[in-house]
Amino acid sequence: MSAQNNHILYPGKTLGIIGNGFIATRLTQDAQRSGFKVGVYGSQASDAAMKQADFETVGALSDRAKLKEFSQECDAVTYVGANVDAQVIEYISQYTWVPQGKETLEVIQDRLLERAFFDQINVNIAPYVTVIGLDDLYQSIDSIGYPAVLKPIQRGLGERSMIINKQSDITKAADFLETGTYVLESYIPHDHEFSLMVAKGQQDTQVFPLMELKLKQEQLIEAAAPAKINEDVLAEIMRIGTAVAQQLTYVGVLEIGFYLTKTGTLYVKGVTPGLTTQGNVFDKVSDVSQYEEHLRAIIGIPLQPIKPLQPSIMMMIQKDQMDDIQTQWLLKDNWRFTFYQQTPDSQSTIAGHVLVAGDELDKLQLQVDNTEVWNKRTRTNNKEE
User: Fold this and answer.
1) Does residue 293 share a domain with residue 209?
2) Which residues belong to any copy of the ATP-grasp domain (predicted)?
3) When you count CB atoms within 10 A of the terminal residue's CB, does the N or C end of the chain come out lower?
4) Does residue 205 sit in the same domain as residue 181?
């Protein structure tokens, strides 16, 4: 860490951003407002972040010539999501300053390294074993139990995981296991899922209010903050958040995910270095956004103390909900709508998000539920299942 201490990026310098979509666009806008020239690196010239930037480089993350060219134009580079390979960061660090570093990516992109890290800081994670072939799987399933989840060691884009609900499912894993080493872990049935976002500066740390998430098939539907939770559980979440931030060689915003079971047992789901979709809820919940705090961290100035302002709920807007959303647009005075600029070839079904702000989370949730916009989708999905 000492090599990164007191490394300041002053206004007028050039910040490079690796990423795309709404998050990269917002960070670009905040950096430009703070006086920086911004370059964006991504694979789609039509992406909104590319259009917002002062300059852009279109290229794949495997294109070393393009990466070198881009890095040499920047005084510092930040990545906005965790899908950048650690080797890419190691490579561009030869040509520019990358405040976040590569170490956290190395830890979270290898599931065994990640689990060793969690063991080191004494946190509760799902029981797991390493499996190489079908024999391993048959021998291990009794100790893990059903249901179990089979995941590749290397985390990344396009990866596949498989749920094993019963013994007859194991034979289906034969082809699955041909691609390398896997982790077999217990599936943790849980009543609640939480997200803690931490900003780690070069000298200081700030923690955002805890969020509760609602997901459907791993797709985010809702984020609400500050989460309503038992004080003892909140204290343990904060302890873990602080321990993670202290142990990781990292500068910037990161997210730690948690599961809470019906019996009150807390499990750590994982760590995500970078900005998140659910982090947009802080545009209303607190007096500083995830983008402002991330920028302060990576350019080397003190983080802003985070003060809660009001409870808020963020609901994701799907394209097929737009007719209903237009009705709410006309009716709601406490709803703030954000619509994402889509590239012509975008496969995303997400149109944007809405922030619902007020005095009490329960009342806000009731307001959301009464519109039936998201209830209809849930009922439809349940029928399909």
Assistant:
1) yes
2) 115-299
3) C
4) no
DSSP-based three-state secondary structure for 51: helix
Query: Per residue, what are the HEC states of 141-154?
Result: HHHHCCCEEEEECE
Domain-located, residue 378: yes
Does the global pTM surpass 0.85? yes
What is the rounded distance in angstroms from the CA atom of residue 48 to the CA atom of residue 31? 15
What's the domain range around 162?
127-186
Task: Identify the CATH number of the domain in which residue 159 sits.
Answer: 3.30.1490.20
**Cα distances (angstroms) measured from residue 37 to each of 19, 32, 48, 190:** 16, 6, 16, 45
Determine, yes or no, domain membership for 360. yes
The structure tokens 């019963």 sit at 166
Number of domains the chain is built from: 3
Torsion of CA 161, 166, 170, 171, to 10 degrees: -120
Are residues 78 and 32 both part of a single domain?
A: yes
Question: CA–CA separation, 238 vs 256, rounded Å?
Answer: 10
Domain identity same for 135 and 272? no
Tokens of 332: 């709601």
Q: How many Å apart are CA 30 and CA 249, to the nearest integer?
A: 25
Task: Record the tokens describing residue 303, joined without a space.
Answer: 């983080």
Q: What sign results for the dihedral spanned by CA atoms 253, 211, 284, 306?
A: negative
Find the CATH number of the domain harbouring 29. 3.40.50.20
SS3 state of residue 369: helix
Shared-domain flag, residues 198 and 180: no
Residue 290 lies in a domain: yes
Same domain, 303 and 371: yes
The CA angle 320-213-80, to the nearest 5 degrees, is 80
Q: Is residue 156 part of a domain?
A: yes
Q: What is the mean pLDDT of each run of 10 residues along the chain (385 residues)?
A: 62 97 97 98 94 97 97 98 94 98 95 93 92 88 92 75 89 79 92 97 96 93 97 96 94 97 95 97 98 98 97 96 93 95 80 96 96 72 39
Determine contact, residues 343/25, Cβ cutoff 8 Å.
no
Report the candidate in 244, 293, 250, 297 with the shortest Cα–Cα distance to residue 89.
250
Q: At what angle do helices 322-331 and 373-384 cross, to 10 degrees?
A: 160
Q: What string of H, E and C letters represents the secondary structure of 124-187?
A: CCCCEEEECCHHHHHHHHHHHCCCEEEEECECCCCCCCEEECCHHHHHHHHHHHHHCCEEEEEC
What's the first-to-final CA gap in the chain, in angstroms? Answer: 49
> Tokens 């290397």 appear where?
154
Answer yes or no: are the C-beta atoms of 12 and 37 closer than 8 Å. yes
